[in-house]
Design brief:
Length: 902
């Protein structure tokens, strides 16, 4: 029989004795022995799990013997607690986890345990809480669901907070575990008066000076408030924030910070942070709750306590100062009144009182802690974001100091204005090579200028004197920052270590300043390009493969800004010259690839909105209290060659700004590269009119030259558009085309050319149609005139016929008179009269017909010319002329008929 079988047999005998023993003493001894063996043996835990739960739960139900109930509870706790000194194979069964699952599945087991909390015996309540905590640790979801189904289950647990100290502490621990993820339980706890009980215990334990109980209370409080807007409203409107803020007050000696006090302060700062970040919802109600929390907290003077912890208590641990700075940044972010409140705060004692912002800036420039620099820098980011008045207020103090003050150490800068201190920090590199201080000052300056053209123009006017007077006139601050950018790769930091590309953050931060400065500021671009070496250095920086991906990418963005926001017309400095330099020195393919590499880099691809700090718990409290600064030799992800602190400085907001800017840069460079300069500064000598050249020949030569130039330009546009678009697509980061069938640049140029030709033909066709319509109108008028003439000729013919009839009657009368022998009457010469009448009518008719034929001949010539042109354009001439003149009779025909009749 092996050891497992022996243990199982032994556990079985003990359980049998507990169930069927005759003597109470025997049963108690068996229970004690069972508890001892289960607490020390995995095999006993496994054996107990197979057969022990029904027996011990039966003891808990009967409750006849208090000592047996205690023993049963203690044994159950041992069965659910992993044995620390024993080591199990990773794939082996975990007895404690298995027993937890078995007990939680036992019907009514949770309700039975909760009912034991009402027992008078101290140890029964104590072991019951321990057992519930063990169940919750290993099987939280099932226990949470079970407690919610039990009437007054939560109420019974909350009541334990008012029990004896040991019971209270166990109940605190249990409720802390129970509320980590269960929102429904969080709400019930609040309605059961948890806030009042928590603050009562904290006050009783001594606030921030208290022990681990204060830490547990604050952890429970944070569980109730984190991302829970409704609970935050209840705290604000019932208990209020005064009890919370009072925990921040430093009591006793302000330079004494034990590890437990540090953890307690970090916990209450986490509570403040939860209130400042509001609920997890993104609706307007949650936003209003967040703003209300910020307003009320400042009204209750929380800002003074935060400044005391972060700025004035320099003995406070770095972790506490950083958390205080983070809260200050969240407190003023997007809140106008709080921004003004911070701007008006003063710190220090007379006579060395100075604005709070000046004190925070000094910390940024002086601190040796990278984490403290990042946290304090966040305050200025929050202060300047969408606060143009605040930016202008800070920018108005940017007044260069004399060289004597510029060379002064920071210990002498107490009386400096904010701007003077900032410029002092920027100029530090000039006399001691302290690039790090200048870099930190550059970060603050970038916030002062962000999205504020007035501040950019103001800072653009600043000129700094050189530490070496023989170097000449003061140089613009912009030029000084470019010089520091070049020095950043060769200088050393405060620790004397060389700032190698792998761990240097100097270049990216200075590039961030320059990119922010030049964005949408043509005057800054012009100032940057005034010094030709600037463009040369920037081209070299983009091409330098020894720098980090981030530095090369930001340099490429800066180079793109020099083209996009370039309003210069000066040759060699205009947008086309910049793009041409990129093409010649780097190549558009390599340039676009630099932008693409930056977007795919670890730093840019992993940027996410700022996330709340990891919740402070018992398990991680010590490590968070002893915050280790970012080490230069920190082991980093192989995919990330950039300094780890850049992940905090280059947040999602800045990354999105760069992405949007990059898209505009790509499109603008393609447009500039595919459309050369259209203006010509001077006329070539070949285009001047020669001495003996006639005007017609000169015009003909100019026309030939213009046609040749148009052809060459069209070919150039074709080549450039094709090349630029191919390169942009190669870069991979350009804008996505909505039409997948869209062709390349050549197709677009050809289509544009055909479209223009089609428009010209359409215009010519409209002109011809207009002329044709005019001709048709004239032909119609001539047709009407011909019809009128035909009518007149017909009337004349009728008159002639009447005359013939009259003549005939006269001849008949004359003949009758002759025959009757009457006196002869003189007979007029009829033939003569007829001849004269015929001659007069014929002359009148021939004159009118001659005029008509001349007009028709002229119009016929026009019609023939227009018909030829219409045939060239593909028009059906016969169809246009069909029907014209068909009904018009010709006067000549009538005249001939008249002659024949005659």
């Amino acid at each position: 029989m092996d050891f497992m079988d022996v243990t199982r047999s032994y556990v079985e005998r003990l359980l049998d004795c507990i169930s069927n023993g005759k003597l109470a003493e025997d049963r108690r001894n068996a229970m004690a022995e069972l508890q001892s063996v289960v607490a020390e043996s995995h095999a006993a835990q496994l054996a107990f799990g197979e057969m022990g739960f029904p027996v011990l739960l039966g003891v808990l139900r009967e409750r006849e013997d208090v000592e047996m109930v205690r023993g049963a509870l203690e044994t159950l706790v041992s069965a659910l607690t992993p044995i620390a000194h024993a080591k199990l194979n990773a794939n082996a069964v975990q007895p404690a986890l298995m027993n937890t699952d078995l007990l939680s599945r036992e019907g009514q087991s949770i309700s039975l345990l909760l009912s034991l909390l009402s027992e008078d015996d101290f140890y029964i309540r104590y072991y019951t809480l321990q057992l519930l905590t063990a169940l919750l640790t290993n099987s939280p979801t099932r226990l949470q669901e079970a407690i919610l189904t039990i009437p007054r289950g939560i109420t019974q647990l909350v009541d334990m907070l008012m029990d004896r100290e040991v019971i209270r502490n166990e109940a605190l621990l249990l409720l802390t575990y129970l509320t980590r993820e269960a929102e429904e339980i969080q709400k019930i706890l609040v309605f059961e008066g948890a806030f009042e009980k928590i603050f009562s215990i904290i006050k009783e334990e001594g606030g921030s000076e208290g022990g681990v109980v204060v830490q547990d209370c604050l952890e429970l409080l944070n569980n109730l408030l984190r991302n829970n807007a409704s609970n935050q409203v209840l705290l604000r409107e019932t208990v209020g924030f005064d009890s919370l803020i009072s925990i921040l007050k430093l009591r006793g000696t302000t330079y004494s910070f034990t590890q437990q006090k540090t953890i307690n302060l970090l916990s209450v700062l986490e509570t403040i942070s939860s209130l400042l970040n509001g609920g997890s919802e993104t609706d307007s109600a949650s936003n209003n709750n967040r703003l209300t929390n910020k307003t009320v907290l400042v009204q209750r003077n929380v800002l003074d306590h935060l400044l005391m912890l972060g700025v004035e208590s320099q003995w406070a641990p770095v972790s506490v100062r950083c958390a205080a700075f983070q809260c200050i940044g969240d407190l003023i972010s997007g809140h106008r009144q709080n921004l003004d409140s911070l701007a008006s705060k003063s710190l220090g004692d007379e006579p060395e009182v100075e604005p709070a912002l000046n004190s925070i800036l000094r910390i940024i420039l002086r601190t040796s802690s990278m984490q403290e620099f990042i946290a304090a820098d966040y305050i200025f980011k929050s202060f300047c974001e969408q606060n143009s008045d605040g930016q202008r207020m800070l920018a108005s103090t940017l007044i260069p100091q004399p060289m004597s003050m510029t060379n002064a150490r920071f210990e002498e800068d107490v009386n400096m204005s904010f701007g003077s201190m900032l410029l002092h920090g920027l100029a530090m590199s000039e006399h001691d090579g302290d690039i790090e201080t200048s870099c930190r000052a550059a970060s603050v300056l970038s916030y002062v200028m962000k999205d504020n053209i007035q501040c950019k123009e103001k800072v653009l006017q600043i000129k700094l004197e050189s530490s070496i007077s023989s170097l000449g006139d003061p140089e613009p601050l912009l030029h000084r920052m470019v010089k520091y950018l070049a020095l950043a790769s060769s200088k050393k930091g405060k620790d004397g270590k060389s700032t190698t590309p792998r761990n240097s953050y100097f270049q990216p931060i200075i590039l961030k300043l320059l990119v922010t400065w030049l964005c949408d500021c043509p005057n800054a671009v012009q100032s940057f390009l005034e010094s030709r070496p600037h463009l040369t250095y920037l081209l070299e920086l983009v091409s330098n493969t020894e720098t980090t991906v981030c530095a090369r990418g930001l340099a490429a963005v800066l180079l793109g800004e020099c083209a996009v926001y370039n309003k210069s017309t000066e040759s060699g400095k205009d947008a086309f010259a910049i793009v041409d330099a990129i093409s010649q020195k780097i190549g558009l393919t390599s340039y676009f690839l630099r932008l693409d590499e930056m977007q795919k880099s670890f730093l840019f691809s992993t940027a996410k909105p700022a996330q709340p700090r990891k919740p402070l718990t018992r398990s991680n409290a010590n490590s968070m209290a002893e915050m280790e600064d970012i080490e230069e030799n920190e082991v980093m992800d192989n995919r990330n060659d950039d300094h780890p602190m850049l992940a905090s400085m280059f947040d999602s907001q800045f990354v999105n700004f760069i992405k949007n800017l990059e898209g505009g840069i790509r499109d603008s460079i393609v447009k500039i590269y595919s459309h050369p300069k259209s203006n010509v500064s001077m006329m070539p000598a070949a285009l001047e009119q020669r001495k003996d050249e006639k005007d017609g020949e000169y015009i003909k030569r100019l026309k030939s030259f213009a046609e040749k130039q148009c052809s060459e330009i069209q070919d150039l546009l074709n080549r450039n558009a094709t090349l630029a678009e191919d390169l942009a697509n190669t870069g991979g980061g350009g804008t996505t085309r909505s039409d997948p069938t869209a062709g390349g640049g050549s197709d677009r140029v050809q289509i544009e050319k055909l479209r223009r030709e089609l428009q010209e033909v359409a215009q010519q066709l409209e002109i011809l149609k207009t002329e044709n319509s005019k001709i048709e109108t004239e032909a119609s008028s001539y047709k009407t005139l011909a019809e009128k003439m035909e009518t007149d000729l017909k009337s004349l013919s009728d008159a002639y016929n009447s005359l013939e009839q009259a003549n005939y009657h006269l001849e008949m009368e004359v003949s009758a008179l002759k025959n009757s022998g009457a006196v002869p009457i003189p007979i007029p010469n009829i033939e003569k009269i007829k001849a004269e009448a015929r001659e007069e009518a014929q002359k009148e008719s021939e004159g009118e017909l001659s005029d008509l034929l001349v007009c028709l001949g002229q119009e016929q010539s026009k019609v023939e010319k227009l018909s030829a042109r219409l045939m060239e354009l593909g028009e059906d001439v016969d169809a246009l002329l069909e029907g014209i003149g068909d009904d018009a009779g010709m006067p000549d025909d009538d005249d001939d008929d008249d002659e024949e009749d005659d």
